[in-house]
Amino acid sequence: MTVPEVRRLLEIALPLPPRSPELRLAWSLWRRAKRLLARLSHRRRLLDDLGYSYSAVPP
Question: Its domain of life (predicted)?
């Protein structure tokens, strides 16, 4: 069986309770913030490797 097939069977056999719109929004906002921090950290590391400064305050 493939992963999607197993997931579909689990959805049928073990349905999860419905999630509230507030929980979905909170999760979405948290996830976006987490991805932003990861992206900034990645870019900062790349700039460090290239020898650039990345000060948030302009000179």
Answer: Bacteria
